[in-house]
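Possible race condition, two jobs.
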Amino acid sequence: MANIKSAKKRAKQSEKRRVQNRLYRSTARTYVKKARTQVEAGSIEAAEETLQKAIKALDKAAQKGVIHKNNAARRKSRLMKALNKAKAA
């Protein structure tokens, strides 16, 4: 454990930020996973609704710096591609 006051403060801040980042990351992952399973199951309407939530969560995570903006864009692109493929089939 840190002995210096500023180091203790930084440790507290880091822990607080880690918990916050974990929340944004897990929320995004959850919605992405739900959307993907709904697309695979063939429930297009439910998948579209969940996809909007997933996109919002990914954008928020990218905005907060939890994931890179290109990472969020890539995931959104793959989800949309899967949804459009399911719609066409």
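Job #2 (started ~2 s after job #1):
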Amino acid sequence: MNWIEVLGVVAACCTTVSFLPQAIKTIREKDTSAISAAMYTLFTTGTLLWFLYGVFVQNFPIMLANAVTCLLASIILFYKFRYK
């Protein structure tokens, strides 16, 4: 793995892990009043599209990071609509 791939993996880990605190807090408290439904809908769609891009270009770090981020964002979005 060269330094550019390492850079990509580290960046993917940082952005993916950054969603864990929000997802955990949302699941525990079921409070989504401060979360924008429009923003999370667009963001979730974007991560899904990035995942598909990763599939098409066969880039595992992009696929993995965006699959996990999309899952976490989807959970938050689900809670946003479930617990209004």
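The mean pLDDT is 92.
Logs attached separately.
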